[in-house]
Amino acid sequence: MPTQLQSLPILEMGDFIGGSGGDDRQRARLIGEAARTFGFFYLTGHGVPEAVTGGAFAASRAFFALPAARKMALSITQNRNNRGYVSFGEEGLGDDGAPDAKEAFNIGVAPGPDGEDVNSWPQLDGFRSAIIAYRDAMQVLSGRVHRLFALDLGLRPDFFDSYFTHPLSTLRLLRYPPRRAADAADPGAGQHTDYGNVTLLAQDAIGGLEVRTREGVWITAPPVPDALVCNIGDCLMRWSNDVLVSNPHRVVSPAGAERFSIAYFADPNADAEVSCLSGCAGPDNPPRYAPILAGEYLRQRFDATYAYRRGS
Fold first, then answer.
1. I need a surface site. Which of 12, 206, 227, 239 has the fewest CB within 10 A?
2. Which CA distances in Å does 112 have to 65, 104, 119, 168, 188?
3. Domain parsing of the chain, residue ranges
4. Cα Rg, the chain, nearest whole Å
5. CATH domain 10-310 topology
């Protein structure tokens, strides 16, 4: 059971934009401290207009309200780029492989090999424009967050910029149906860590997100008005040699309530080499992971997550 004895830190993002180099380093230290301690924190004052966020949630609700046949016509099983609709039972994030009680829709950033848009868009008025506006806002914000992490790790502020020129980043719309009280043991999303660098999560007012601290204690991460939840993913943890922590989390939606959230996974370019950063290892702390290309690492994780990929 989660405890309320601890809570995630709340950081004012507006304080982290602009200012002198010295101020930026101080701001980076604060965000780095939160990442080292919890791997999770809230961001307020992030600059994403409320209308853009509201438009994305409205588009998400409209999509998930479509008949099942229209959603399945955009199934992720028909798209080689991890884009499209994920139906109930298709995904199992927990270590036990049990299917999650949720449905999702993935929209990417990077184009296909020939520059084409490889997303699967529904024929739904206003959906594409609303989702692109929110996706673009998340891409800008994730770049700012990466610059702060770079400073905190002793790197130049633009260190990560070249690794995100054609990112594998994914915007994910999520719907968790109302859960019966008898299903309390079946989470909407099983215990897992995120795969990429940084996740930016917008929640509705329902709640259900739970985070495990480094001490192994589960705490709730309830919605905070006008705030995004930010967390470290496995790629950035590997890059930093476990200096920054990618903590397990899960979703247990309240009984009888429908829950919506929107996650932006800031994932590097496919050809980005994820290897131990300078300053994150030493004689008593050697690199813990072998170098790997981000695209290959993400492919391995997706293959283990999706039922249709495991069977291929």
1. 12
2. 29, 21, 9, 11, 31
3. 10-310
4. 19
5. Jelly Rolls (2.60.120)
